[in-house]
Amino acid sequence: MPNDRPAEQDLVRAIPLKKIQERILALLEDSDESGVADGVDLIISQGAYHGASDIHLEPWSDYLSLRYRLDGILQQVAVIPRSFQAKLIARIKVLADLVVYRKDVPQDGRIDLEKTSSGRPMRVSTVPTIKGEKTVIRLLGDTQDLYNLDTLGFQPQVVERLREIVIRSQGTLLLTGPSSSGKTTTIYALLREMMSLQRHTTNIVTIEDPVEYSMDRISQIQVNPIVEFTFTTALRSILRQDPEVIMVGEIRDLDTARMAVQAGLTGHFVISTIHSGTAAGVFTRLLDMGIEPFLVASSVTAVLAQRLIRLNCPDCTGPCEPDPITLEHFGLAEDAGKFYHGKGCEACQGIGYRGRASIGELLTVNQAIAEYVLTRPTTSQMQELALAQKMESLAVDGLSKAKKGITTLEELVRVLPAQAN
């Protein structure tokens, strides 16, 4: 029987998604001890090559499912016999320095970039399920070019305004959006912008959970709840370290929120994230958490709400006629103009989309907004005032990109919050 295992140097070459399963099984079924190691390397390297943000290995009833999250959507890549499940998960645990024999507790680890042929650092999470351990590998960025405000997809006026905001000596800039909406990437782009626009002597400190990207000339701190080193305790400690810029990975509770907002009033510039549907909703969230209105009005400089949208594949994009219901969803007439979508081709693996970009709404706090916060407005009331103050909403930004053929109306329906449409 001929050996159909690919040569080691072929592992990092491009393999069409529909053929990855065949190549993985060829490696795993080989009796060579390196078969499992090469199989894991192939899974990771192909995920990196195809631009996956996450790799999911999930035990189902009859097989181990391999799925890549491509442009925000999980795509089934392979089904692997359950007989290989334990060996594959064990190999990933070894790479991530996890305890191999502990299968009854969740574990988190990290795979350094030199440990696989992908050349990418990774974050690994395992959790026990009734069918065995589920493993998710997050592929982290491998290039500083990722952290450039001009390439994220925001409108030029939003980028210009952000540059004006981040050179201020104090205040609070908050980012909001669901998980995997690009907030972390935007924050690192903002930090990089600060280092280029301001002096290299600026003392920048970050508090993260976890630290996803290592950056020079920044003091990055990773929280550790096991030893009660939380966002709040870390923030309290670094305020004694003479910081000028503080990045708090996420505002999760009242204590962290109050300390971050107060820091923005006392000579520090604070960047953080908080969960809310829209930029206007952030003010309601802070007030509901118990932050005094005068602190919110005085400290918060701006709020950026963002989403990631899939982009039409440039190789197969063509005109289309959106469904009337979709047009009605956005208040558009049937003669609203031309729209486009990717039809699916080899370059995009038949999906029709390739790549992602950000859409955003930036609510800048001026005197009118600050005074309105003191009255404890509802989210809808704040949204109305922000729009009257010339804020461009997520929906408007998205529709602009759809009309230019950059994305589709269907994609906007998927990512936009209901109140933004």
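the 2nd protein, sequnce then structure:
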Amino acid sequence: MGPLNIRVSHPLRAFRLEVALEIGAETVALVGPSGAGKTTLLRAVAGLARPEHGSVTIGGDVWLDTRTGVCLPPEKRSVGLVFQEYALFPHMTVAENVAYGGRARAAEMLDRFGLGALARARPAKLSGGERQRVALARALAREPSVLLLDEPLAALDTQTRSVLRAELGEELRELGLPTLLVTHDYGDAAALANRIGVLVEGQIAQLGTAAELVASPVSPFVAEFTGVNFLRGAAVPGPNGLTEIRLVEGGAIYSTDARSGRVGVVVFPWEITLARSAATDSARNHLTGRIRALTPIGNRIRVSVGPLTAEITAASAEQLELLPGEEVIATFKAAATRLVPLTADARSQDAVDVQELG
């Protein structure tokens, strides 16, 4: 069929949604804060909203072109759509809900998603995971050319979400359809999508693989969203071939990356160790700060210390007897300190003047 091409320009409350995106036989996730325009874009592709300007094409088929007045209704677009709350018809059985998507493939979809035993049940009797499977089966029963997923895992509890995330990821890889996924959860995006676009105030701030976004976030927002520490500073030559970074927050750290001028500093939380006193190992970077918060994540604890977030084992946190408000030393190696040049937009926010710091 060919790739899905989306171009949308549409006014929102405080800014314009301006997105141009091409999606091949892959899953692309759009992540970002509420109100950034993610759902508006999804609705424009589905035909549930008409943007002020734009086009939506799939291969040679034109679904939307505001210049020529083309705007096909949703039923004329080959789209499978899974809503956030699944939007199953409560008065219909599972089998009838799936058949509503497409009768020819309803039986196949019931079997594919293990729903045969639930065919006569109504949505009110289903678990969250079962409702999600029914919604996906109904969407695929249409034999769509494009799949749209609006927060498909948001309504699930943590344990069910983990299981269905793996199942959905496998299903999407097998389908190989142009798929647009909207989510607030970076973990869902990283697990399900080939590429991730971070949508901020109507524009894609960064588009890349999960690994690319983690390794080289272009802004503090992208870094925070992916769970990576992002500091700002000015890079100057340091001792022993290292680069010294004089931080906006105060203090200096070192990196093995060769950079100069205004930079963003990327440090993964799991590269940071915490101690009550200065470490005696070879690590060059030591920042002292007070604990702002301790957040359990599975069997690990995320500890916010000054401008940093460290991720340590629950056993280590217990051994150190960490409590909010206490002062600790965060330590990380120069080799674990990545430097990225700041973009023009990033420089405009709290930018460091190298002349002043020099």
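The radius of gyration is 24 Å. Residues 344-358 have pLDDT under 50 and may be disordered.
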